[in-house]
Amino acid sequence: MAFRSAACAGATIGKTGGLDRAMKAGIGGAAITMPDGLIVAALVAVNAAGDVIDPSTGKVVAGVRTADGQGFADARVLLRSGVSPQIRPGENTTLGVIATNATLTKTQALRVAQMAHDGFARAISPVHTSGDGDAIFVLATGSKTGAANESRLGALAAEVMADAIVRAARQATGVPGYPFPLEWRPWPPPHAAAISRCRSPSSRGAASTTRSTAA
Fold first, then answer.
1. Rounded to an integer, what distance in angstroms lies between the CA atom of residue 34 and that of residue 152?
2. pLDDT tens per residue, range 100-111
3. What mean pLDDT comes out for the span 157-171?
4. Are strands 27-33 and 2-3 parallel, antiparallel or unpaired?
5. Most buried pick, 75, 132, 163, 208, via CB within 10 A?
């Protein structure tokens, strides 16, 4: 699931080689429903300095392009070769929301938010640089009663957050000067595992019955 909005109209990724070699990104979503009824969903606006990486393959989905524009330069390769990233402060941020039907205290929500940042690290490279302003918020509706295991929730949150980031890159809409994967070159569909276990989050439930938040 991907979205278009004014808030993400200028979102780009792969800026470690400069804006002239960046690509378009946007907003992506993913969710998982567990056998016991637990739902964990992610929504993320990706405007990162780094590349977007598919955790299932380790390959670049979208990011800094080569100087001739014919391929991915791969920010990881550039870093290891001694190239200094051209990251300008104030121009990059990845903002995510985790929504769940579990019942959480503020302390538990904070732990889930912290663990969900692992999803950033799995799907963006480099991430959390001095030029990035990254944040994740957690919303718990409380419709699923009973004690929640925040460690389980946090691990699932990281999974769906990484999936949402990959979708934000794959399903973005390009603008002049900033292509996106599907128009730049042929690209296979998202891996089957992500398709089978990811569903769209219920925005109405997450917004109307919020119990706890954490950043």
1. 11
2. 999 999 999 999
3. 95
4. antiparallel
5. 163
**Structure tokens of 171?**
């399903």
pLDDT in tens, 66-101: 888 778 899 999 989 988 877 777 788 899 999 999
**215, part of any domain:** no
Note whether 68 and 204 are within 8 A (CB): no
Q: Which residue has the tokens 């955790």?
A: 55
Task: Write down the pLDDT at residue 92.
Answer: 87
Domains: count for the chain:
1
SS3 99: strand
Q: Is residue 213 situated within a structural domain?
A: no
Cβ atoms of 125 and 16 closer than 8 Å: no
User: Range of 57's domain?
Assistant: 2-208
For residue 161, the domain's CATH number is 3.60.70.12
**Is the per-residue pLDDT at 7 higher than 80?**
no
Residue 131 belongs to some domain of the structure: yes
Segment 189-201 shows an average pLDDT of 33
Residues 21 and 12: their CA atoms lie apart, in Å, by 10
Take residue 196 and report the two structure tokens written for it: 């089978």
Residue 185: burial class (beta carbons within 10 Å; 0-12, 13-18, 19+):
exposed
In this structure, the strands spanning 51-54 and 124-125 are antiparallel
Please compute Rg for the chain using Cα positions. 17
pTM value is: 0.78
Residue 212 vs residues 16, 137, 151: alpha-carbon distances, Å = 36, 10, 16
Instruction: Answer whether residue 13 is part of any domain.
Output: yes
For 70-92, b where at least 16 C-beta lie within 10 A, e where not — what string? Answer: eebbbbbebeeeeeebbbeeeeb
